[in-house]
Design goal:
The structure is a single chain. The protein has 262 residues and is an all-alpha fold. The chain has ten helices and no strands. Helix 9 packs across helix 10. It is globular and about 55 Å long. 39% of the residues are buried.
Length: 262
């Protein structure tokens, strides 16, 4: 009983510390910003409006579904979370070297706090999606209940990739630039401005190899039921678990060397 109580108390302290680190990240990020959290909304909103204008006003749109602005936002907002968290994870240790060395916390929290803080920004940006959904007359189906599952899968995938890249950057500094380059390519290789079903036959396997494909399909399912492909979701679930396991193993085996390198 004593061991069980101590274990629960340790887990409680760990989650409490994670929340404190997340709050610290958010406060530091917005303490000197005039617009504050609005910056986390303006970026995906501006990108969505640009793509909406290009594909609906300049060119005849042949991808996605109407209302296209909602179609964009349902994938672009999660992408901003994923992209920001993975990009910032490359400096998870390098940004707070003194704290990492001195504070007795599980080392994975330095990645977890980034995933959580970007996740909070994602949740705070959802009113933008709601406003455009109402304004454009988008219909909502029962599949909107799958939204929490999509959030959980994206958070898990992002954490796994963050655990993978954060220690590698300490040993190989060029890996930070490589990660950002890969993210830039991944944006166009993921079904964001288009749906997985819009891909030509020769490119369909790419959607099955990309864990984001099924996750974005879950995010869109509440507004666009035809985007939901359970096979694709299953493949994304497998990919998510693989990245989490590989990321955790790499992180565990390299964290000792990271502390020496810092």
């Amino acid at each position: 009983m004593t061991f069980s109580s101590e274990s629960r108390a340790a887990r409680k302290r760990a989650w409490s510390s994670l929340w404190l680190l997340t709050r610290r990240d958010l406060k530091v990020r917005y303490s000197t910003s005039l617009l504050g959290y609005l910056w986390s909304v303006l970026d995906p909103l501006l990108m969505s409006l640009i793509y909406w204008f290009i594909f609906t006003q300049v060119f005849s749109r042949s991808v996605g579904e109407a209302p296209y602005i909602v179609f964009l936002l349902t994938a672009l907002l999660p992408w901003v979370w994923f992209n920001g968290a993975v990009s910032d994870s490359t400096r998870a240790f390098l940004r707070d070297v003194k704290l990492v060395r001195s504070v007795a916390l599980p080392r994975w929290m330095w990645v977890g706090r980034i995933v959580c803080s970007k996740g909070v920004e994602f949740l705070l940006s959802l009113p933008v999606l709601i406003v455009f959904a109402i304004a454009s007359g988008a219909t909502v189906g029962w599949q909107i209940a799958l939204f929490p599952l999509a959030v959980l899968m994206l958070a898990t995938l992002t954490l796994g990739i963050g655990l993978l890249v954060s220690p590698l950057v300490v040993f190989f500094r060029d890996f930070e630039r490589a990660t950002k380059l890969i993210l830039r390519v991944l944006f166009y290789a993921s079904p964001i401005i288009y749906g997985a079903a819009d891909l030509p036959d020769f490119a369909r396997p790419l959607a099955w190899l990309n864990p984001l494909s099924g996750i974005f399909a879950l995010f869109r399912a509440g507004f666009f039921p035809d985007q939901l492909d359970w096979g694709l979701v299953g493949a994304s679930a497998v990919g998510t678990v693989v990245f989490l396991v590989v990321g955790a193993l790499v992180f565990r085996r390299s964290v000792g060397g990271v502390l020496k390198e810092l």
